[in-house]
Amino acid sequence: MGVFGIAFDWGKTSANYARFRDIYPQEFYDRIVRRNLCVEGQSVLDLGTGTGVLSRNMYRYGAKWTGTDISEEQIAQARILSEGMDIEYEAVSAEKTDFPDNFFDVVTACQCFWYFDHEKLEPELVRMLKPGGHILLLYMAWLPYEDKIAGASEALALKYNPRWSGAGETVHPIFVPEIYMKNFEQTFHEEYLLDVPFTRESWHGRMKTCRGIGASLTETEISSWEREHIELLKEIAPASFTVRHYGAMAELKLVR
C-alpha cells in the first residue's frame, strides 16, 4: 500500500505487532459493551483484524467473532494468539469477503477504516449485515502535542520517514465517508482521553510497529532508528510511564 506516505506492509512487522500492539485499556472495551455491541447473542465480523486484538479481548463477552485481514502474516499471528478460542480467521481483503447475506449483527473496523475502498465495501456491508445491523468504527492514537514522550518519539520517526502521514494527531471524530449515509445513519460517536501505561521497552516496541517505522522502512533504517530511539527514551522517559492518547468510536446503523 502506498496511499499513506511510502509503501507499507504490516506483514513485515507481524511478530512485533503481536507483542506490542495489544495495548487498549479496559475502558476502551467497556465503552463498546455499554453500547450493547459485540456481546452475547451477536455475530461480529472484524475487518482488518490484524493479530486479532479486538476479537481476542472481547471474546469473553460472548459474541461469535470472525476476523479478516489482507495480510497472511497478521492472520497467522491471530490464530496463534487465539488458541483455544472459537474465532474464525481468514486472510482476505475487506472488499472481497464472501460471507452470506444477512449474516452479521455487527461489523467492526479498528484502526483501519480509512484503508478500505468504500465504493466496493459499502454494498458488501449492506448485504452481509442483518436488518438494523451496526458498523462500529474504533480508533486510538497518541497525542504528540499533549505528551512530551510521544512528541519526541514522533519527531524521531519523522526524521527517518518524513513522508509518514500518521503524525500530528489531535482529538477529532472518526470520519465517515458520505457513501455510507445512503443506507446507514450515524447513531453515536464519542472521543475521550486515555492515559496508556508503558515501559521503555513496550513504548519502543509500540513505536517500532507503527506504519511509519516497522511496516515501511528498510532493515538498515529500522536498526538506525532503534539505536536513536532507545537512547532518546533513556534521556526523557522513566522506566515506567503513561502516554496520553485519545480513543474514538463511531456507530452506524443499517436503515434499509
Total DSSP helices:
8
Q: What is the ordering of alpha helices and beta strands?
A: HHEHEHEEHEHEHHE
| Average of the residue pLDDT scores | 93
Proportion in helices: 25-40%
Quick one: biggest sheet?
7 strands, mixed
Q: What structural class should be given to the helix and strand makeup? A: alpha/beta
| Global Rg | 18 Å
Which ranges are low-confidence, i.e. pLDDT below 50, for 5 or more consecutive residues?
1-8
The counted number of beta strands is: 7
Q: How does this model look, in words?
A:
- It is a single chain.
- This protein is an alpha/beta fold and 256 residues long.
- Helices cover 32% and strands 26% of the residues.
- The chain has eight helices and seven strands.
- A seven-stranded mixed sheet has the order 3-2-1-4-5-7-6.
- β1, α3 and β2 form a beta-alpha-beta unit.
- α1 crosses α4, α6 runs antiparallel to α8 and α7 packs antiparallel against α8.
- The N terminus is likely disordered.
List keywords for this structure.
single chain, 256 residues, alpha/beta, seven-stranded mixed sheet, 8 helices, 7 strands, 32% helix, globular, disordered N terminus
Give a quick precis of the structure.
With 256 residues, this protein is α/β, with parallel strands linked by helices.
Q: How do the helices and strands line up, and which of them pair or pack?
A:
Blueprint: H1 14-20, H2 26-34, E1 43-47, H3 53-58, E2 64-69, H4 72-81, E3 88-91, E4 104-110, H5 118-128, E5 129-142, H6 148-160, E6 184-199, H7 200-208, H8 219-236, E7 240-254
Parallel strand pairs: 1-2, 1-4, 2-3, 4-5
Antiparallel strand pairs: 5-7, 6-7
Helix pairs in contact: 1-4, 1-7, 6-8, 7-8
